[in-house]
Amino acid sequence: MEARHRIFIAINLSKKIKGKLQNYQEEIENSFNSLDCENPIGWTKEYNLHITLVFIGDVFTQDLAEVCQAAGTAAENQTSFEVNLNRICLAPPNKSPRMIWLSGGKNQELETIKNSLEKALLGSSSAPLLPHITLGKIRQWQWKQINPEEMPQIDKEISLDVPVDSIEIMESELKRGGPQYTILESIKL
Length: 189
Fold this sequence. Notes:
The protein is an alpha+beta fold and 189 residues long. It has a single domain, classed as Cyclic phosphodiesterase (Cyclic Phosphodiesterase, Chain: A, Alpha-Beta Complex). 25% of the residues lie in helices and 41% in strands.
């Protein structure tokens, strides 16, 4: 049986940006210290922090080169740009929270490259992209044990500019300790 790879295209982050994100994670974690419970959030490891552009899904080994070539062609006219992330919040919006995001508003350059990638790789483009970074995932059984009146407030306005000068074709491997992401190819903008 031929090997399959879970593939997505993302914006990888600089060490400096990842360091700032870890500071936000620690700040939120510390807000749970006064509660008589275990922290209900599984934090995204530093090396896994990214902004997802397009989730492709399972790709056979023999098709990986074609995915990389199509992504490179879709991105060849895109120049570098910045994405502003401005809010730490519970996510998804307007639903029972499952994650903590650092999110931003719509960005035309990001939307353009996402649409180009989706058309080249999936044949059509989907709903507009709400740029976000998953800082952590909520462990529901622990979260529900916290008295709502004691729940720390997780909603903070910030301003973080993320430079985008490349996109990465990444593989997601589900492991016992959580997913591990590997960059298969980096495409400079």
